[in-house]
């Protein structure tokens, strides 16, 4: 028997099931090493390739990476903050879903996109003047 009732998940937040806390912890460590303030990462990065296995996971990850405050991801999407002309361009490659989510190739595809962006060789996807990129 399978169920998706909250009681089946225990008393902890289901945010941990999608890796929210581990992404947040990793982001804080990376930002500390690079002088980026958590919660204001969008002000310091030009390109972000994040793991968007599901549309909702992308919203959760904006917050876990500190691109915006908790509970504000949807507002920033509505304001076009995470696309060309916004604060930071997220998934200029189209993201994993656009590639068919190629499980083992996902990470290398994200790294390639960041590299192409920083080299200025991302063709029509190029984020002009990209100097800092993050792959998650």
TrEMBL record:
Keywords: Lipid transport, Lipid-binding, Transport. InterPro entries: Thiolase-like, Thiolase_C_2, Thiolase_CS. Its EC number is 2.3.1.176. CDD domains: SCP-x_thiolase. GO terms for molecular function: acyltransferase activity, transferring groups other than amino-acyl groups; lipid binding. PROSITE patterns: THIOLASE_2. Residues 15-136 form the Thiolase C-terminal domain. GO terms for biological process: lipid transport. This is propanoyl-CoA C-acyltransferase.
């Amino acid at each position: 028997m399978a169920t998706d009732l909250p009681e089946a998940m225990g008393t902890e937040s289901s945010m941990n099931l999608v890796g929210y806390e581990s992404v947040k912890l990793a982001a804080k460590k990376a930002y500390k090493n690079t002088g980026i303030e958590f919660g204001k990462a969008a002000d310091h990065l030009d390109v972000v390739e994040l793991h968007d296995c599901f549309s909702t996971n992308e919203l959760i990850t904006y917050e876990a990476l500190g691109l915006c405050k908790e509970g504000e991801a949807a507002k920033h999407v509505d304001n076009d903050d995470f696309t060309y002309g916004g604060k930071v361009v997220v998934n200029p490659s189209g993201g994993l879903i656009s590639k068919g989510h190629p499980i083992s190739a996902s990470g290398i595809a994200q790294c390639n996109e960041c590299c192409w962006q920083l080299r200025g060789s991302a063709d029509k996807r190029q984020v002009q003047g990209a100097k800092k990129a993050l792959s998650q």
